[in-house]
Specification:
The structure holds two protein chains of two kinds. Chain A is mainly beta. Chain A is built from two helices and 18 strands. In chain A, the strands form four sheets. In chain A, strands 1-6-3-4-7 form a five-stranded antiparallel β-sheet, with no helix packed on it. A four-stranded antiparallel β-sheet of chain A has the order 5-2-8-9. In chain A, strands 10-15-12-13 form a four-stranded antiparallel β-sheet, with helices on one face. The N and C termini of chain A lie far apart (about 45 Å). By secondary structure, chain B is mainly beta. Chain B has two domains: about 30-160, Hypothetical Protein Tm1070, Chain: A (Sandwich); about 165-260, Hypothetical Protein Tm1070, Chain: A. In chain B, about 10% of the residues lie in helices and about 50% in strands. In chain B, the strands form five sheets. In chain B, strands 8-1-11-12 form a four-stranded mixed β-sheet, with no helix packed on it. The longest helix of chain B has 13 residues, at about 1-15. The chains are: A mainly beta, B mainly beta. Chains A and B meet through strand 9, strand 16, strand 17, strand 18 and helix 2 of A and helix 4, strand 8, strand 10, strand 13 and strand 20 of B.
Chain lengths: ~260, ~260
């Protein structure tokens, strides 16, 4: 079973709802209470604390305020379900319990402003290191008072902090990088997508050659009355069956060579 | 011994019951069965990218993409060929293409012209799982949701093949989402299989007791929106069917604001 982060974004608070029941009736038939563990990276180690126990069938929402007593402001709060509490301190990310595959065992990951909320069903597994990212992102919205962000969500097994650079390009004019931003591992890094000169017909291409992550696209009206949140697919999702990861490798090789080349 | 029985138990759920069948033609392209909504309150859009062009190293020319529309009963409505430029964003106003007179919801698929040779060399098919957005009551922002169901293949002879797997045993999709009493929900289900499916949407209280139950017989390529409004208490949803994975599309409306996501 994966980890479930509490998200953060400009002008919004994150909330994550955990479910102690499987997403189907045939993969995981255990009906047992599970421990809610909170995990975060601090001082070069993974720290964990058991928050509570969820009875089978129970659902419970957690906000940043619920974990503020444990998690430093700049650390990503990770929730997970397990049969027992994790060790208080680990050099490698604790192994979360295995759950289901069709679909994955998910939580509701959401963002709320005082006037609206948005969410998606998600989970977060540790990415390989160093990893890389390529994605095509037609999610920028336009209009007066509309703000657009990419929330780069990363988790790795090791708690030591490292950074990488995200580059944003126009797919039709791949030679010039329109903007770059530093992102951090084991964190939600906020990247503004406004002011890059991208218009409604331009296809933003987002790459990161040194880190994998889930690219979440978050749009909001400046007053927070309207919110939108969704992630784009990794390249492997553009094909089905066969050697999908080879197709992903091909697409990354092709685009990494094409982008930034005069 | 325990492992053996567990493997045997799982076999009953997996033997010859794939989530998605393999298209019978090597060069077929695949699409999700997306949900369109058209009414005075709802508009639907699709973000179309020239996907074969993403795999081409040379500058491409305009690509052709076929959109195929069905009504809620899975009946063919229309198809439309659109030309798009490579490496550009093409936001299609799906509601305007469907127009009025076909109901307020239905399904559509998006087929690219071909699977690139470099992709079928891997034994793969190009799959359109792209991005639909919905606008509710002229809101300043659209709400996006990605596709995740490889539902329909278009063959080289232009015929369609439904790819959704069916289960021997009745399955439950336990939506891992808490339905709250100050929101109204509509749960969209599509049928990507070749046979009509009985779909039951059960609302459970937090303690697991049944509070509502709705059923529909869903034709292949059809869709249905179950309306759920938890009035007094928190609820969760269980979808019963013989689809291998009856994952709903969830529309949530709260204070006149709409959010959409996959279950």
């Amino acid at each position: 079973m994966a980890f479930y982060p509490i998200l953060s974004a400009p002008g919004c608070n994150g909330h994550t709802t955990l479910y102690n029941f499987p997403p189907n009736n045939w993969e995981d038939t255990r009906k047992e209470s599970r421990c809610v563990n909170l995990t975060w990276a601090e001082d070069g180690a993974w720290r964990s604390v058991a928050l509570c126990e969820l009875d089978f069938g129970a659902m419970q929402a957690f906000t940043r305020a619920n974990v503020a007593a444990y998690v430093p402001d700049d650390a990503l709060a990770l929730l997970s379900l397990a049969t027992a509490p994790y060790p208080e301190r680990c050099a490698s990310l604790p192994k979360a319990m295995s759950g289901s595959d069709m679909p994955n065992w998910r939580a509701t990951l959401g963002l709320s402003s005082p006037l609206a909320s948005t969410c998606y069903q998600g989970e977060l597994d540790p990415f390989p290191v160093p990893g890389s990212l390529l994605t095509f992102a037609p999610f920028i919205q336009f209009g007066a008072g509309v703000e657009n962000y990419m929330l780069f969500l990363n988790l790795e097994k090791h708690p030591q902090m490292r950074t990488a650079t995200v580059g944003i390009y126009d797919g039709a004019k791949p030679a010039r990088c329109l903007g770059s931003s530093e992102v951090r591992n084991n964190a939600v890094s906020v990247v503004s997508l406004d002011g890059l000169g991208l218009g409604p017909k331009d296809l933003p291409v987002v790459i990161c050659k040194g880190m994998s992550g889930i690219p979440l696209y978050f749009s909001k009206t400046v007053d927070g009355a309207c919110l939108s949140l969704e992630h784009t697919h990794p390249p492997a999702a553009h094909v089905i069956h066969g050697k999908r990861w080879e197709a992903q490798r091909l697409l990354k090789t092709e685009w990494f060579a094409r982008l930034g080349r005069e | 011994m325990k492992r053996y029985f567990e493997r045997l138990r799982r076999t009953a759920w997996s033997y010859r019951q794939p989530l998605t069948h393999v298209p019978t033609a090597t060069r077929a392209t695949v699409s999700d069965l997306f949900v369109w909504r058209v009414s005075s309150d709802w508009e639907t859009f699709f973000e179309l990218i020239d996907m074969p062009g993403l795999f081409a190293s040379a500058e491409g020319t305009a690509a052709k993409v076929m959109l195929v529309f069905f009504d809620a009963n899975g009946q063919f409505i229309l198809e439309k060929m659109v030309k798009i430029q490579p490496n550009r964003r093409n936001t299609l106003a799906i509601s305007k293409i469907v127009g009025s007179g076909h109901g307020e919801s239905g399904t559509f698929s998006v087929f690219h012209s071909h699977t690139p040779p470099s992709v079928y060399a891997f034994g793969s098919h190009l799959a359109e799982r792209g991005y639909v957005s919905y606008r509710y009551r002229n809101a300043p922002l659209r709400a996006y949701v990605h596709g995740n169901l490889d539902a329909v293949a278009r063959m080289p002879d232009q015929s369609l093949q439904l790819l959704g797997g069916r289960s021997f045993l009745g399955r439950e999709y336990n939506l891992q989402h808490l339905l709250v009493s100050n929101s109204a929900y509509e749960l969209g289900i599509v049928n990507p299989s070749t046979r009509a499916q009985r779909i039951e949407c059960r609302g459970l209280y937090a303690d697991g007791k049944l509070c509502t139950s709705q059923s529909v017989d869903l034709a292949p390529k059809g869709c249905h929106l179950f309306k759920v409004t938890p009035e007094y208490a928190q609820q969760r949803i269980v979808i019963r069917s013989r689809l291998v994975m009856a994952r709903p599309l969830v529309f949530r409306i709260q204070n006149q604001k709409m959010d959409v996501f996959h279950g």
